[in-house]
Amino acid sequence: MISVGIDIGSTTTKAVLLREGAGTAHVLTRTGNLPGQTAREVYGRLLSENSLVESDVDVVATTGYGRRLADFGDVVMTEIKACVAGVRNSGLPPAVRNVIDVGGQDTKVIAFEEDGEIRDFSMNDKCAAGTGRFLEMLAGKLELPYEEFVRVAAEADQEIQMNSTCAVFAESEVVGLLARNVSKANLSAAAHDSIAFRVASMVRRVRHEGEICFVGGGAANTALVRAVEEHLGEKVRVPPRFQMVVALGAAVEGLRTLAKHRGKEGC
Amino acid sequence: MTALAGLRAAADGREGALRAGIARGREVVGLPVPLAPPPEIVEAAGAIPFRLLAAGDADAELRALAALGRDACGTCRGLLGAAMVAHPPVTCLAAGTACDRMRRMLEAFGSTGLPVFTVAVPRVRGISGQRKALAQELRLFAGELSVRTGVPATPERLAAAIRRGNAARRILREADGLRRLVPPRATGTEYFDLVRAHGLLPVEDFLALAAAVPGELAAREPPSPDPVRVLLTGPTLLDGRRDALAILEAGGRAVAVADVTDSGTLASGEDVPEDGDPFLGLATHLLAHPVLAAPLRPSRAFRERFAGTLRASGAEGVLFRGVPFCRPFNSEVPALRLLSTVPFLEIREEGAAASGQTRTRIEAFVEMLLARRLSGGPP
Lengths: 267, 379
What we know:
The structure holds two protein chains of two kinds.
Chain A: E1 2-8, E2 12-19, E3 24-30, H1 35-49, E4 59-63, E5 75-76, H2 79-87, E6 96-102, E7 107-112, E8 118-123, H3 132-141, H4 146-152, H5 167-179, H6 184-206, E9 211-215, H7 222-232, H8 245-266
Parallel strand pairs in A: 1-4, 4-5, 6-9
Antiparallel strand pairs in A: 1-2, 2-3, 6-7, 7-8
Helix pairs in contact in A: 2-8, 3-5, 3-6, 4-6, 6-7
Chain B: H1 3-12, H2 14-23, E1 28-32, H3 39-44, E2 48-52, H4 58-68, H5 74-86, E3 92-97, H6 100-110, E4 116-120, H7 130-149, H8 155-180, H9 188-200, H10 203-210, H11 213-218, E5 228-234, H12 243-249, E6 254-261, H13 265-268, H14 278-288, H15 299-313, E7 317-322, H16 327-330, H17 333-339, E8 344-348, H18 356-375
Parallel strand pairs in B: 1-2, 1-3, 3-4, 5-6, 5-7, 7-8
Helix pairs in contact in B: 1-9, 4-5, 5-6, 7-14, 8-9, 8-10
């Protein structure tokens, strides 16, 4: 059986093709202004890159904030459910029971049981200050490419506290700090620390026993992962295809739903 | 057309009928939900009670912002905004006060040019003599309104209005009971449609149109598979803030089987005593079943109500839909979480329409409850 999971996020759209017993393939692109259309394009690209046509696919599962904008999905689910399924199929040790997902638009922390049942979850409020967007915005303010903004955080030599709890106020605060000749490295570290503090608070609110993993676009940011580890006082695991985890989970859940449906029909 | 559809249509078309009534010289008293004097008094004084609902759109709330300030909750802003934008078909307003912001809202209502009657509803229960004091307050309101309408609210007229009001409450309670059955025979959406019609229609019309609704709902095929059962709480779910309810019940996977909200079962409650002094009876009812959860003070009374409803409903999850700045409700959330023996989801969002994040949270909550039920895990 072939399943495709498509995670239509606010910043990027990810698609994973899952062939039962034959591994996976994936595609990632920026979402842009037309999420439904982007999802369709990503799906088409994934099929053509794998020499498949739509009729070869048994089930398409969509997830992410644009999950209902793709009109060709067979199964729709929240990214919370898909994320847990993805983490459990990402080759991480079974001791992992908590997941941090820092995306462009929001941040989620999910705690789950050994069997994958979601125990609790938390999402940051409608606020950019706890998301990847916050870091992108501050990188722009410091006139640094994002990768450079992440890299220089490791060169910080002074601890600066960012007091603002709002992305808009934080931007003003950065302007003030720059005027006081605070280095870009120290500012970058402070910004990462500010987000890590928020993420760690969310983890403490919902966390379950077991280890923690970090997925989503935010997991690519080594400075952020390090800062979160410091705040939590423990190591955080990052799976190899951290950005594909939710799409993979959608594909897995799609297969499961299909199997359940066929089982019922068989009865 | 089903009885419920007929009731919905009548409620939707109510404003036009009221405008025609006003043109014929009738007095229509706007009662701001969620806190208002008993509509029975309005009827007894020969006027037509009409529940004002908060606007469900952001524009109306923005208009009210200037009058109320940012620290007023969305419910007050929605109510005032609706009055400022839509000019409801009322000739005066009658309202109770429960919090300082509500008082400010009523002052702002006065700026719309409508006369405003206020009734002071005590915020704390259990004070000696308060039942008699509230009865006297209601008597004064009845007297003032009677002067305006020219129809005295005699005890006989009031007693008759109370009997009709109780008949309407029995219909609401019957529908409420249907959503608590396993599997539920009514949804929260259907129940709140009844509550809305109850607030908008004259009681005679409501009785005529709604009497068949519970029987009609009970006769339907029960939903399959059995949806997960959720208890709703938070300030109000009657008007523009039904977004959380709509998301929760979409697709039939979950049903709001009970609620502890200002505009749900709290508003209907048990019957008003029909014997003795009718004003004392209304005061007794108002104190025992306040239209607003906030006056269920001390907090213990509110928490006991929440815990009792949770137990009785067999809910598998609790959804709190709050609005920023609604302090009386929001301050209870930590206690409600502790009391909750089932998963608890808190949504606190400003504005009338739910964001994508709210949708994701509620849908994920339902997924979580469904998975728990399937795995036979802890409730």
